[in-house]
Amino acid sequence: MSTLRTRIRPAAGRAARPGPEETAQRALLLRLLSLLLQYPDAELTAERPALAAAVNALPSSPAADELAAFTTWFTAQPADTLESHYVEIFDLRRKSSLYLTYYLHGDTRRRGMALLTLAQTYRAAGWSADSGELPDHLPVVLEFAALAGPRAGEAPLRRHRRGLELIHHALSDVKSPYAGLLTALLSLLPPASDAELAAVAKLAAEGPPAEDVGLDPYSGTGFAPPGTFVPPTPARPTLMPPLTGPMDSEPRR
Description:
Blueprint lengths: L2 H6 L12 H16 L5 H5 L1 H9 L5 H15 L2 H13 L9 H5 L3 H16 L13 H11 L6 H5 L1 H13 L5 H10 L5 H13 L47
Helix pairs in contact: 2-5, 2-9, 2-12, 4-5, 5-12, 11-12, 11-13
C-alpha cells in the first residue's frame, strides 16, 4: 500500500484516542484537506482515485460535501493542468499563500519567532513534520491538527483564522476550485467574529506588516529565509519552494 494511502489512516505508532465517531471523522477530514492542499506531484495525482473514494465514504456534512465537489474536479483534470493551476494560485498570488505566519507578521523578525514557536509546539506534542516545509505551511498545520486533536491540534488553525479567511476570499475571487477546500476548513472552525472579519478586510487592503529594516526575520530561529520562487519539481507531498516578497494583488506574469 502506498505511503499516501497509509497517511489517510491514523498515524502509525499512535493509539487511537477514545471518543465519539465525530472525532475520528473530523481528524479524517483534516487529513484529507492536508493532502488535497499539497502540490499535485506525481505521487498525489496517482492516488486521486483513493482520495476520491475516501472522500465519498465520509458521512454527509458541509465540509464533506465541499471535499466531494473538489475531488470531482481534481480527478478529472490532466496532471499538468493541476500543476500549473496550483503554482498560479498559491505561488504567484501572495493573497493566497499557504504560509500562515506571513499574514500576521510579513517577513519580519516576529515571523521568525512565530515559526520557531510553532515548531516547538509540534515537538512538545511528540510530532515531527519531517517534510522539508516550514512549520506554518497549511498542509503541515492541518496534519498536526488531525494528529493532535481538536484542542491543542487545532489551536494553530484558530490562531491563524484571519489568514485562512484571506486565502478563502482570494481563491473565491479567482473562482479556483481550491476555494471549496478553504470553505470546508472554515466550516470546522468557530465562526469568525466581527473583529476578525474587520481585521481580514484591513489585511486585504494593506497587506501584512512591512519588513523590519536592518533585522533578519529568521535570525536565531533555525529556519532559512525563503528564497525567490522556483517552479516546483516532483517531490513528496508538502515539499514546495518557499515564498517571499510582498503580497501581490495580481499575479505576476
